[in-house]
Design goal:
This protein starts with 13 loop residues before the first strand and ends with a strand. Strands 4, 6, 7, 9, 10 and 11 form a six-stranded mixed β-sheet that branches. It has a five-stranded antiparallel β-sheet with strand order 17-21-20-19-18, with no helix packed on it. The protein is globular and about 80 Å long. It contains one helix and 74 strands. A hairpin with a 3-residue loop joins strand 73 and strand 74. It is mostly beta strands and 886 residues long.
């Protein structure tokens, strides 16, 4: 770290133990903001004979800035300075009155350096302590909080206690409970890769982080090129690292520019000034602009494919079209499009010439031919003259201007190793292809966690990396025995190093015949290594899993980086794997922690057992100390088993055993007060009787262990209010059941919340305002007009528009609606029916914690509460956030 300008060099004759207040970007800990501060400290005299500072350690704190607000998990970054470079122990304390100091409780397993045996040197070695302030001080706001750090080295020399400036601990405000980043810039979702022109840096587009990174290939250090974490679009002519990017998915170095493919635009970063401009696209979502300058060209979709030819022309993909930007001073002819004027954009392939699944990515070959990725196939596109693919094999002729498949079979997802690429089924969504300089080899990433090499002379395909397992493992060994998790973007250097963007990691494979050196790594031919990863990130939570156990306030969610269902303990934040990842549904009848899955919808039954819906199945984890029987399936303690669904994800099986039924998804699961399991199927809500006696659910008789439809007639519409629930049309998403057994559903087709009365008498909602009466077994809309949108707060629920509601949560006095489309959490007052926004500004992205709820950017996906009344929201930015409501 660079020393403050007013801190003398350690080589001078006097030294200061400094306290500096600065920035710690600790997104999950909510509490680190930008600021400056004062310099305090003790002067120490150096020993001229040794160059040491008299064996006395010093501490320089970087903490929350003077007067700024932080909360919950407070990141305290500090430097330990000792000319003897000894190991140092520290004590870290806090005070709320400036007089009494108490030991600060650390959050364990959070990536911090701890407090013992910490290295130091004359310049200062950085360390981080993460303070669990909510555990120590509760969920209240405290002004004038201080941090004090004291250090002692191996020789027993003790520093003078170092104080921070006072700051505001805003624990009553919104805080990130889990997920997101730990210390700033980390790779989470790398999707697009490119080498710069001298191959001394690797550029990375990360669409989850909304940033562009660079890895210095000499030092393997990671730095940020563009993006400030917030998703969106900021105006041009600002510093690239301070601007918002809209899901960057492709990157390209071209001359003095770094081009970034995003949603509806291509942005350009000037490598000399660091400023950003729009290079292509108006951002209006209209597919227009052939013959116009790039900035006036309308793009209709995400720019996944982005590449340049030797002359500097730019090729990119846009929905179902391949387009070119002529960057020459003269007109050019490309793929039958003649006389493309200088400085203009032109579609060179579109309409019926293109398969509906393409193009996604586009790569320029050594002869300006284009390799185009679709969902299931690789296409070759000749831009100047007819080509013959695989001349020593099947010899496929490719006329100019036509997309001709050269690898993969349509609608396939199973891969084989060996044989002709044109005869092998491939799954290629959001994958990539790169070609070597000689045009003799292609390298292809696939959805099924593999990387293939295609011989461009014979057409033979072989697997060079990946076992099919959805994890990043096997570093230092042969790539074909290692696993690669969801590889996407690829880049190939001239010395045969293949860089791969995997989930949460950048990995490299030596595809050459001789050893290669990369930074401090030596890669043998065929070997694989990781050069950057999300190891510095806590984890990223998924947008479909959240539940809180009311007995102990444990939080259950999905760790998206590992694809595992985890339990987070409420105080220590320790993470416990409940069901493993791996991307497959496996392990039924065994311990849940040894099982695997691919995604989760969660609910807790009345006894605290986990009910999980995914992959056409309902599975249950027994959290009791004795066996349980659910829908006729016996599950021992700690075990997991399927109790409904055959995994085919085709709706059917009403009136039969739930274990043999088929359903899609499900989109959501919920459990009633009597243990009945409800699931949102494609066009209906269905119920499973988990007990041993017949039940009548919403007027439908269901035998033990069987499944029946209880809401919905199978028609894709939103209709039928005031009629029996079975006669209504709906497209259910989120489900909830209250203490009276009333079933609530989010209807995607009507952008609304509807309810079905499970009782024997009429039920009146919002009696103090615009009352809605529901007869037994009938359905009515409680929130929403049927039109998607946002028409403000303070209105009755039946005239309030919802944009894209996803889930609901019911309390004793309100209905909470997560509307990620509007980027808001709405509260419907149970007495008046009036709707208000309680969280979210309507803007995308993440603008930190310790701010009022209505000022916090959020994209609420799911919401629930704990026994203390604290609300937990699963945010689309990959976080679980926690707050109180007044």
């Amino acid at each position: 770290m660079r020393r403050p300008s007013n801190e003398p060099s350690p080589r001078g004759r006097r030294f200061i133990a400094a306290v500096a207040l600065a920035t710690l970007a600790l997104a999950p800990g909510c509490g680190v903001l930008v600021g400056g501060g004062t310099i305090l400290g003790l002067e120490l005299t150096k020993d001229d004979s040794t160059g040491n500072v008299g064996s006395v350690p010093a501490v320089a704190i970087e903490a929350p800035a003077l007067g700024e607000a932080v909360n919950d998990r407070v990141g305290i970054r500090y430097r330990l300075i000792d000319g003897d470079a000894q190991l140092v122990d520290v004590t870290i304390e806090f005070s709320t009155d400036g007089e009494t100091f108490i030991a600060a409780t650390a959050i364990e397993d959070f990536g911090h350096d701890g407090t013992a045996d910490l290295p130091s040197d004359a310049d200062g070695v950085e360390h981080v302590f993460v303070w669990n302030s909510s555990l120590d001080l509760g969920d209240e706001d405290r002004a004038g909080v201080l941090i004090r750090i004291t250090a002692v080295d191996e020789g027993g020399s003790r520093s003078r206690p170092t104080l921070s400036d006072p700051f505001l601990l805003a624990n009553a405000q919104i805080a990130t409970f889990a997920g997101g980043e730990v210390f700033g810039d980390v790779l989470i979702g790398p999707t697009g890769l490119a080498l710069d022109e001298t191959a001394n840096a690797l550029l990375i587009a990360d669409d989850i982080e909304s940033k562009v990174f660079a890895i210095d290939l000499a030092t393997l250090e990671l730095s940020r090129v563009a993006g400030n974490e917030l998703k969106g679009f900021d105006e041009d002519d600002v510093a690239a690292v301070e601007t918002s990017l809209d899901d960057p998915t492709a990157v390209l170095r071209l001359g003095k520019q770094i081009l970034v493919g995003t949603s509806l635009r291509v942005r350009s970063v000037d490598v000399e000034t660091g400023f950003i401009k729009t290079a292509i696209g108006t951002g209006d979502g209209e597919d227009t602009g052939d013959g116009l300058i790039p900035q006036l060209t309308g793009l209709a979709d995400q720019v996944f494919g982005l590449d340049g030819d030797a002359a500097g022309n730019i090729y990119f993909t846009d929905e179902t079209a391949i387009r070119v930007v002529n960057r020459q001073a003269v007109a050019i002819d490309v793929a039958g499009e003649l006389g493309i004027a200088p400085g203009t954009t032109q579609t060179i392939g579109g309409g019926s010439a293109l398969h509906p699944d393409v193009p996604q990515r586009v790569t320029v070959g050594p002869n300006d031919e284009l390799y185009v990725i679709g969902d299931d196939q690789v296409f070759l596109f000749a831009t100047q003259a007819a080509l013959t693919a695989y001349p020593d094999g099947p010899a496929i002729v490719v006329p100019v201007g036509e997309l001709v498949p050269i690898a993969g079979l349509e609608d396939g997802d199973d891969e084989e190793d060996g044989g002709l690429a044109i005869d092998i089924e491939l799954a290629l969504e959001e994958c990539d292809i790169v070609i070597d300089a000689a045009g003799e080899r292609a390298f292809l990433s696939t959805v099924t966690n593999r990387i293939h090499e295609i011989d461009l002379l014979t057409g033979e395909l072989t697997t060079i990396a990946g076992t099919g397992d959805a994890e990043n493992a096997g570093d230092g060994g042969p790539a074909n025995e290692a696993s690669v998790q969801r590889p996407r973007g690829l880049a190939l250097s001239e010395d045969d190093l293949l860089f791969v963007a995997c989930t949460g990691a950048i990995r490299v494979v030596n595809v050459g015949d001789t050893p290669a050196i990369l930074g401090t790594l030596v890669l043998e031919p065929g070997a694989i290594e990781t050069i950057a990863s999300a190891a510095d990130a806590e984890f990223l939570v998924a947008d479909d899993a959240l539940a809180v156990d009311p007995d102990d306030d444990s939080v259950f969610t999905m760790d998206k980086t590992d694809n595992a269902l985890i339990e987070i303990l409420p105080d220590t934040r320790e993470r416990i794997v409940v069901v493993g990842g791996g991307g497959e549904l496996a392990g039924d009848g065994g311990l849940a922690a040894d099982a695997s899955s691919a995604g989760y919808n969660l609910a807790l039954d009345p006894d605290g057992n986990l009910v999980i819906g995914n992959g056409g199945r309902i599975r249950v984890v027994n959290r009791q100390t004795v066996p349980i029987v659910v829908a006729g399936v016996t599950i021992p303690p700690g075990f997991i088993d399927t109790i409904a669904g055959d995994g085919d994800e085709v709706s059917g099986g009403d009136g039969g055993a739930a274990i043999d039924a088929g359903f899609v998804g499900p989109e959501s699961v919920a459990v009633g007060p009597d243990g009945t399991i409800y699931l949102a199927d494609e066009l209906s809500v269905r119920a499973v009787n988990p007990g041993t006696t017949t039940r009548t659910i919403l007027g439908v008789s269901i035998a033990p262990g069987e499944i029946e439809t209880v809401i919905g007639n199978g028609v894709e519409a939103s209709a039928g209010d005031g009629d029996l629930a079975l006669n209504a049309s709906c497209v259910p998403l989120g489900l909830a059941v209250d203490a009276a057994g009333t079933v609530y559903l989010v209807d995607a087709e009507g952008s609304s919340v509807r309810a079905v009365n499970a009782g024997a008498a009429d039920r009146v909602f919002f009696a103090g305002g615009t009352a809605v009466t529901i007869a037994p077994r009938e359905i009515e809309t409680l929130v929403g007009t049927g039109a998607a949108g946002f028409n403000g707060d303070g209105l009755p629920s039946i005239v309030t528009e919802l944009t894209e509601p996803k889930s609901i949560f019911i309390t004793a006095d309100a209905i909470f609606v997560c509307d990620p489309g509007a980027r808001r959490l709405r509260r419907v007052d149970g007495q008046t029916g009036t709707v208000e926004t309680v969280l979210g500004t309507g803007d995308s992205g993440f603008n930190g914690d310790a701010v009022p709820l209505v000022n916090a950017r959020a994209s609420p996906e799911l919401v629930t509460t704990d026994s203390l009344g604290r609300f937990y929201v699963l945010d689309g930015t990959g976080r679980v956030r926690r707050f109180f409501l007044d």
